[in-house]
Amino acid sequence: MTAHYEPVATEELRGAPQPSLAADLITLTKPRITLMVVVTMLGGIWVAGHHGEYRAEAGGSAARLFAGVVGTALVVGSANALNMYLERVTDRLMARTRNRPLPTGRLSADLALAFGLMLGLVAVPLITFGVNAITGLLAALALVSYVVVYTPLKRRTTLSLLIGAVPGAIPPLLGWTAVTGHIQLPGVLLFAIMFIWQVPHFLAIATFRRDDYARAGLKVLPVERGDRVTRIHIVAYLVALVGISLSLVATGVGGGLYLGAAAALGAMFLGMGVWGLRPAAGVRWARGLFAVSIAYLVLLFAALMVSP
Question: Over the stretch 68-102, which tens digit does the pLDDT of each residue have?
Fold first, then answer.
């Protein structure tokens, strides 16, 4: 299965210290992305645990919630490792991914596949039996949809972004169901916030890395339909994001502090998106939008967690 490509042999790799096997395996899990996903899952736990009207069992035991957090990290790690396995040839063509363990030949494809499968086979039962069945089902859905549906579609249609946003949005809902044992409106709205947020966030990346995606043959909006259409999509999704984030207050989740923060952060994010409609907006604007998207999400969840 590794015969379709040769290891990269660039001058920058020759003579450079080689990561250990353990470090390369950790790299397969995309630890920064995994950490961010776990944080959003913890946000769902915190919010559900502090709104007693939605709780089924007073927030659940510490052991159950710990199993949920560990299981979520393993599920995300599994999805990322299997994604890298499936995209090992494509990754050679992109500047930001060509030095990963598989394109360089530091790890064998078979080992990466076994590692990714092992993580998934541990994670889903851990969540199902250690937390509850509905959280386990959602975790399995996220894993399968990311690996089996989203990853192959990236080379076929720009709609893969919306499909990939589904597993990316599930973690806060996992946190909610880990506490409550049910899918309820506030948890669904947390899912919706994450789902919509991913679109402008990713389109910003696709804009300033357009050449990379084009070289790899991946179908992204800036490559397929151009910058103008991409920017219009960004603004449209940002309008929806502001509306959904504010609607959470109507469920009793998030008080006045959250409402004010959501409005201010939404105005900042939307304003940055609208600024990109200028003909002169380019790569620098897209990088700025990406940075703002990260700050927006972190601060929004922080406001939600501290707001009475």
Answer: 999 999 999 999 999 999 999 988 988 888 899 99
**Contact partners, residue 107, CB within 8 Å, separation at least 6:** 21, 24, 25, 28, 101
Query: What is d(CA 9, CA 11) in angstroms, rounded to the nearest whole number?
Result: 7
In angstroms, the CA 169 to CA 74 distance is 16
pTM exceeds 0.90 for this model? no
Q: What span, in angstroms and rounded, lies between the C-alpha atoms of 171 and 192?
A: 11
The dihedral built from the CA positions of residue 51, 54, 57 and 60, taken in this order, carries a sign that is: negative
Other CB atoms within 10 Å distance of the CB of residue 292: 19
For 58, counting Cβ atoms within 10 Å of its Cβ (0-12 exposed, 13-18 middle, 19+ buried), the class is: exposed
CA distances from 283 to 62, 251, 279, 291, 307 (A): 45, 39, 12, 13, 36
Fold of the 19-183 domain = Tetracycline Repressor; domain 2 (1.10.357)
CB burial class (10 A; 0-12, 13-18, 19+) of residue 183? middle
Nearest to 178 by CA among 217, 210, 241, 130: 130
DSSP type of residue 54: G
| Residue pLDDT, tens place only, 229-268 | 999 999 999 999 999 999 999 998 888 899 999 999 999 9
Q: Give the single-character DSSP code of 7.
A: -
Sequence-separated (6 or more) residues with CB below 8 Å from residue 266: 238, 241, 242, 245, 246, 296
Domain boundaries, the chain: 19-183, 184-308
Three-point CA angle 55, 59, 65, nearest 5°:
130
DSSP 18: P
157 alpha-carbon distance from chain centroid: 19
- Do the beta carbons of residue 126 and residue 70 sit within 8 Å? yes
